[in-house]
Amino acid sequence: MAKLQVVDQNNKKVGDIELAPEVFEVEVQPEILNLVVRAQRAAHRSGTHATKNRALKTGGGRKPWRQKGTGRARAGSVRSPLWRGGATTFGPQPRDYSFKVNKKVRKLALQMALSARVAEDKMTVVSSIDLAEIKTKAFVDIVEKLGLRKTLIVAKNADQNLTLSARNIPGIKVIDANKLNVYDVLLYPQLVMLEAAAQDVQERLK
Predict the structure, then answer these.
(1) What pTM was computed for the model?
(2) DSSP alpha helices (H): ranges in 1-55?
(3) Boundaries of every domain in the chain
(4) 20 to 30 Å CA-CA from 138: which of 33, 60, 81, 197?
(5) How many angstroms separate the CA atoms of 175 and 151, rounded?
(6) What are residue 51's phi and psi, to 5 degrees?
């Protein structure tokens, strides 16, 4: 069972936390991470693209000219896909891009993503982050003391002071522990978990 130092918001050690190997020491399989990330991103696609086919185009009900005798090619409608202003053949239609990934696979992928951060020594556990008021400057001081750059901060029931103070800082994202996901963990090179959030995630993923 691995141990990580727990530091305070001034980056001073205040204790240790034991990490469950079944959550933070899982062998990483890139193909599973790839599957879950693709599923997550596909689910976020709006899928609202659309073009008009023959059924959706107005007009074109009358034959432009008679079938024979004009010397021109046959034409049945001015809304033919061959004509300017006509319909589109096999154009994109609204659709749902999401696809199902089993719950156990999603859970395993999250364990792998967390394990990768621990193995790379890119995960920090902070006892708590307390802000007296909503103030970006105060949070920037904490970020500098902890040496954070592009970082995902995981909190359990993050308070408004922390969430709003962090939202204007480029490269910093605060997320609630119950919304932790594979894509965000992999997107941000550094992972900071508040101690309460680390315990909560550990219990949930065991």
Answers:
(1) 0.84
(2) 21-24, 30-43
(3) 2-45+97-205
(4) 197
(5) 11
(6) -130, 160
CB atoms within 10 A of CB 177: 19
- Give the Cα separation of 140 and 12 in Å (integer): 17
Task: Tell me which fold the domain 2-45+97-205 belongs to.
Answer: Ribosomal Protein L4; Chain: A; (3.40.1370)
Query: pLDDT for 13-45, tens place per residue?
Result: 999 999 999 999 999 999 999 999 999 999 999
Token output for 35: 């599957």
Pairwise CA distance, residues 127 & 184, whole Å: 21
Query: How far is the C-alpha of 107 from the C-alpha of 204, rounded, in Å?
Result: 10
pLDDT, tens only, 128-147? 999 999 999 999 999 999 99
